[in-house]
């Protein structure tokens, strides 16, 4: 079986070399030396002013909302992983869905302002597949209406726009270091705070039960991560540049073979991309299901990432309409992409997709691009 994603693992001797020292120190958690080293190295690599390592990306979102004291309406995207919406609901806030840009699949800034009410306190937007939101437009809207901005940057490790780290935009950006991500610590995540030291100290308290030493200062949760996870991150970070280069090469092979058969989201000019995912958009859901089944029958896994459109979750009180997100969520499929994927498998996957699409229609598909 060819999986849709496969975690990179460093040479086991390198990991064991770090882990073996824990048997001497017995320092396994509670902001240990590996956690501190990883935070420092990630701040340097990602070019961010602040970074706190936490136990997962969802916890990072929860802490971001709590730290910014958001309590009412949050304008957000319907096209994201469910944790983006769940974090808003979990903090007893109200998600207000705004439809997406059909090119980038990120939240459409043209629709944000008309959704703002006197209860709106924040915008929580996702850099979908690592493709940047229109951060300049969103910043202008947020300043005009005095709103906080949180970016769910779970897919955006290492992405730059016009030479600047994408994580430097917004009040807070959050990352996921889950094992399926480009950079992983098995489980993990991070919070990047762009406001300043005071919020940084507050986030540290929220991450660790609300106390420092013996001083209980506020309500907090346990969002710390362990030395074992940090050690994996320290090992993996050494290989991240070659991982990205390898994924870029695989992406270029897919592009060369599939360009005339399917559509892809657009990456804006000036973006240094990280090749986090390989999503393709079909003409209709029937085509997607047909191709997905053909690949499955050939032991190739894919993922309908993201489906359904989050504004249609069954437990929401108000199911607002977001027609672009609802449409694309039915037609988009992520193909296998990981650093150790063989070129022959990329070619096999591409050929099976072309065969499946050729069988779906009597039209001459070659040379035809779908428009979202």
UniProtKB/TrEMBL annotation:
Keywords tagged on the record: Aminotransferase, Pyridoxal phosphate, Transferase
Example GO biological process: polysaccharide biosynthetic process
UniProt-annotated catalytic positions: 181
Residue positions, PTM N6-(pyridoxal phosphate)lysine: 181
Listed InterPro entries: DegT/StrS_aminotransferase, PyrdxlP-dep_Trfase, PyrdxlP-dep_Trfase_major
Family: Belongs to the DegT/DnrJ/EryC1 family.
Protein name as it appears in the record: DegT/DnrJ/EryC1/StrS family aminotransferase
Biological source species: Peribacillus glennii
């Amino acid at each position: 079986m060819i999986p849709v994603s496969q975690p990179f693992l460093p040479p086991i001797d390198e990991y064991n070399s770090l882990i073996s020292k824990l048997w001497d120190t017995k320092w396994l958690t509670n902001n240990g030396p590996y956690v501190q080293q990883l935070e420092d190295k990630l701040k340097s690599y990602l070019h961010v002013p602040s970074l706190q390592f936490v136990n997962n990306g969802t916890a990072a979102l929860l802490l971001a909302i709590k730290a910014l004291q958001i309590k009412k309406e949050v304008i957000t995207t319907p096209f994201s992983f469910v944790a983006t919406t769940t974090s808003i609901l979990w903090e007893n806030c109200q998600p207000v869905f705004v439809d997406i840009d059909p090119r980038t699949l990120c939240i459409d800034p043209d629709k944000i302002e008309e959704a703002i009410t006197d209860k709106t306190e924040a915008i929580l937007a996702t850099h979908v597949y690592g493709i940047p939101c229109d951060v300049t437009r969103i910043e202008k809207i947020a300043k005009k209406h005095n709103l906080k901005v949180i970016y769910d940057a779970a897919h955006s490790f290492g992405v730059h726009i016009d030479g600047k780290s994408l994580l430097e935009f917004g009040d807070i950006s959050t990352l996921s270091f889950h094992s399926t991500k480009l950079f992983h610590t098995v489980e993990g995540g991070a919070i990047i705070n762009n406001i300043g030291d005071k919020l940084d100290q507050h986030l540290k308290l929220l991450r660790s039960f609300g106390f420092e030493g013996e001083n209980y200062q506020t309500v907090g949760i346990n969002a710390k991560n362990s030395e074992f996870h940090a050690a994996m991150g320290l090992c993996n970070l050494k290989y991240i540049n070659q991982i990205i280069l390898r994924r870029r090469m695989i992406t270029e092979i897919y592009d060369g073979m599939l360009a005339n058969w399917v559509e892809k989201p657009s990456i804006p000019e000036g973006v240094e991309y990280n090749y986090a995912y390989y999503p393709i958009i079909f003409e209709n859901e029937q085509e997607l299901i047909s191709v997905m089944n053909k690949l499955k029958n050939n032991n190739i896994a894919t993922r309908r990432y993201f489906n359904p459109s989050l504004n249609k979750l069954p437990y929401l009180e108000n199911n607002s309409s977001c027609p672009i997100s609802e449409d694309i969520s039915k037609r988009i499929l992520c193909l296998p992409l990981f650093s150790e994927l063989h070129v022959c498998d990329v070619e096999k996957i591409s050929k099976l997709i072309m065969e499946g699409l050729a069988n779906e229609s009597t039209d001459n598909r070659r040379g035809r691009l779908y428009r979202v």
